[in-house]
Write a structure and sequence with these properties.
By secondary structure, this protein is an alpha+beta fold. The protein has 16 helices and 14 strands. A hairpin with a 2-residue loop joins β5 (188-193) and β6 (196-200).
């Protein structure tokens, strides 16, 4: 693959250059493994994405499994499970973008968030801690004694379901106490039973070398997280960079100016962007990108919808919470990347009872090439095989015809 000259010489990017740069930064210009993907391939991908977002929706596959498929093709999901939940761990769970799997080496950079749990965790968590600190201390003691342990198992230790603490998700006080302790870094996820978290103390989960790493000063942690975000995005605005790890607005302009002065970020103008942009110094602009991938709704490439519009001219909204009659494209819609463009979108469901991958609808984007349907079907067949399904079933809805097999 040909690359343009070093980004240090670039002062302005075209939209096409920014798009190719963003795709390369996210790993879509890296060749897929020729054999079964291994731990090395996983580390390469997480080195690009920086994290995998976790989400409970399972109409297709859990969100954190999909970015690896998009970049590696079919891979054993046990590969990610082992990296996250078995020693030696490469990943750990914490609040990164949202709930995320992050490299264990990033844990020290998140300690500022842990230290501020009293102020920035969700309201019901804070209320349980402030109103019943002795109860939270008891839950922590239960985890120290019993871990790995689920919220339900801790409730059982105290006679069953405890008092409900609010309308959101109908969480019990035990669950809220555990989530507060998780936010504060006092407990972490040891493993999962299905999708249920099993909690333990960090000393029994995280590598000793990570726990022994000195805690960076808050501003330094923010600077390092901004650089990591820039590496994953390639080119990004201030808001893009701040959003990647959900950093606070306060102080970010100062941090960015410090990084530019140090040469850790490079200012650049992008055609059509209203806001100034920043380049990672090691970013490369491929002359072309020949990708083919289904992109999950919570993939870093598109999770910031305004950025997806800037980069790809692609207007994307997830319609899970939209009433069915008002949905435009479907319940769980994945954009389809072909070359360096998002050329189509498909509403997918893994129908495990029938053993097929259902294409509820398929829509082409304006200007989609003639081969879009054929290329999309090939990727859908690959996904069906990865999910252990026998084939692809298309309802015929949408304006993009898919070839019969």
């Amino acid at each position: 693959m040909g690359l343009t000259p070093a980004v240090a010489t670039i002062e302005r990017l075209s939209v096409a250059q920014a798009r190719r740069l963003a795709l390369a930064a996210q790993g879509f210009n890296d060749p897929r493994p020729s054999g079964l993907p291994d731990r090395r391939a996983l580390r390469r991908v997480v080195g690009r994405t920086g994290l995998f977002q976790i989400d409970s929706v399972n109409v297709l596959a859990r969100a954190h499994y999909l970015p690896l498929f998009s970049r590696l093709g079919p891979y054993p999901t046990a590969l990610l499970d082992r990296a996250a939940y078995a020693a030696p761990r490469d990943l750990f769970e914490y609040w990164g973008h949202e709930a995320s799997l992050l490299p264990v080496e990033v844990q020290p950079l998140m300690r500022w968030r842990m230290a501020e749990a009293d102020n920035i965790s969700w309201g019901n968590m804070r209320e349980v801690f402030r109103d019943r600190p002795e109860f939270v201390a008891q839950v922590l003691a239960d985890v120290e004694r019993e871990g790995p342990v689920s919220a339900g198992e801790i409730e059982a230790l105290h006679g069953g379901r405890s008092h409900k603490a609010g309308p959101w998700w109908d969480w019990s006080r035990v669950k809220l106490a555990l989530e507060y302790l998780f936010w504060a870094g006092a407990v972490t996820t040891a493993s999962r039973r299905g999708f249920e978290r099993l909690y333990d103390i960090p000393e029994r989960v995280l590598p000793a070398a990570v726990l022994a790493t000195p805690t960076p000063e808050r501003a330094q942690a923010h600077r390092e997280l901004l650089v990591l975000a820039a590496r994953s995005f390639g080119v990004a605005t201030e808001r893009d960079l701040r959003d990647y790890y959900r950093l606070p607005v306060e102080g970010i302009k100062t941090r960015l100016a410090e990084l530019v002065e140090a040469g850790s970020l490079l200012p650049v103008a992008v055609e059509g962007w209203r806001q100034p942009a920043y380049l990672h110094p090691q970013a490369t602009v491929p002359r072309r990108v020949d990708a083919r991938a289904l992109i999950a709704p919570f993939d870093p490439l598109i999770w910031e919808r305004e950025r997806a519009l800037r980069i790809f001219g692609f207007h994307y909204r997830i319609e899970i919470y939209v009433p069915a009659p008002k949905r435009v494209h479907g319940y769980y819609v994945l954009p389809f990347l072909l070359g360096d463009r998002l050329v189509a979108r498909v509403d997918l469901k893994a129908d495990r009872q029938a053993g097929v991958l259902r294409v509820q609808a398929a829509h082409a984007e304006p200007g989609a090439p003639a081969e879009t349907g054929e290329e999309l079907m090939a990727e859908l067949e690959s996904m069906a095989e990865w999910l252990g399904l026998s084939g692809v079933a298309w309802t015929g809805r949408g304006d993009l015809p898919l070839p019969a097999r």
